[in-house]
Design brief:
The chain is an alpha/beta fold and about 325 residues long. The chain is about 35% helix and about 15% strand. Strands 3-4-2-1-5-12-11-6-7-10-8-9 form a 12-stranded mixed β-sheet, sandwiched between helices.
Length: about 325
Amino acid sequence: MRGAPLALTQGDPAGIGPEIALMAWLARDALRLPPFLAVADPGLLEERATALGLSVPVTVARPEDAGDLFPSALPVMPVDAGARVVPGRPDPATATGTIRAIEIAVALAREGRARAVVTNPIAKHVLTRAGFPHPGHTEFLAALAGDPPPRPVMMLWCEGLAVVPVTVHIPLSAVPAALTADLVVETGRIVARDLRERFRIPAPRLAVAGLNPHAGESGTLGHEDDAVVRPAVERLRAEGIAAWGPAPADTLFHARARAAYDAVLAMYHDQALIPIKTIAFDEAVNVTLGLPFVRTSPDHGTAFDIAGRGIARPDSLVAAIRLADRLAPGDTP
């Protein structure tokens, strides 16, 4: 018997999650991927494989057997999709299966039966229509992680750049009011800790972006950088964290600048995501910091518009699998 696998959820079954999982398994040898266990509807995977002409044997398996089975078949812990799935046509009737797959994967990770969780994309509007009470995927994972739930932090990562939005899915007009020194400090602490403990960077360096153009230009272009961001950086430094800023965001992301830090704390969503998606659109990974288990995900959505057409690229999922393997405790089986 080999070691514990990664647990890979199917995501929204009408999206590209099932097919990129199949494609990742097909590339297992060429890309030297670690064993993963799909938490999914096996019938759905077989149907999608047949429709796309992908030669992927699917076998129902326990986590303990996944490593031995992985070289010759895709091991699956079965979850009923909940309804007939048509690629590209999301259906709230499948929400229960989507949610259950996430719950099972997290439980396996918390029990030590899976080394990490890799989640395929979900559609929040589909789950919300089915009564899902959480704002999103990340908050649901935090709720499953313990009571009280830990504070999750979203990091977007690729080789050469890691970015963390301090405020995430809120309107740009709401960012200044939501941005506080406490929020910046708490986020910086979590990022520095996980860079040390998960990424094994002994002394993480954090660049902190300014909110306003030119980091406020000494108050000429806004007061938030001097009143909020700068004091937060000073508090982080006082705690022994190698943080610097506020730095003008327009000079933070060129190649020479990226050599000076391990991660950037950005003040809002697009300030973080535009540079990483420009640099690594197909290979970026969403990794959740602050959880008691490793969780990664492709940095893209369900792509309902191309689901079932065989043109989806598994690159970001492959990168998420590799990063989960790198960050997870224990050696690759």
